[in-house]
Fold this sequence. Notes:
- The chain is mainly α.
- The chain has a domain at 1-26.
- The protein has helices spanning 2-18, 28-44.
- The longest helix is centred in the N-terminal third of the chain and has 17 residues, at 2-18.
- The radius of gyration is 19 Å and the shape is elongated.
- The termini are far apart.
- The mean pLDDT is 79.
- Residues 45-64 are annotated as: Disordered.
- The chain crosses the membrane at residues 25-42.
- Keywords: Membrane, Transmembrane, Transmembrane helix.
Amino acid sequence: MLAIAAAIVFGLGLLLDLINVAIPGLGGSFFLLLGLLLLSLHQAGIGSAGPRTGGGGGGWRRRR
């Protein structure tokens, strides 16, 4: 989920840069750093939906 948010932040920063819109108090580096922060949190596993399911995850054992 955080990777999607990072993509949106990068896209918004790129769009604002292409149309030369300046937001007072927020420079181009703000969007870059915010996107990188979101990506690093995603890579650290924060904000994930929990353990991944499928592919033989916890149900591979047979009951005896």
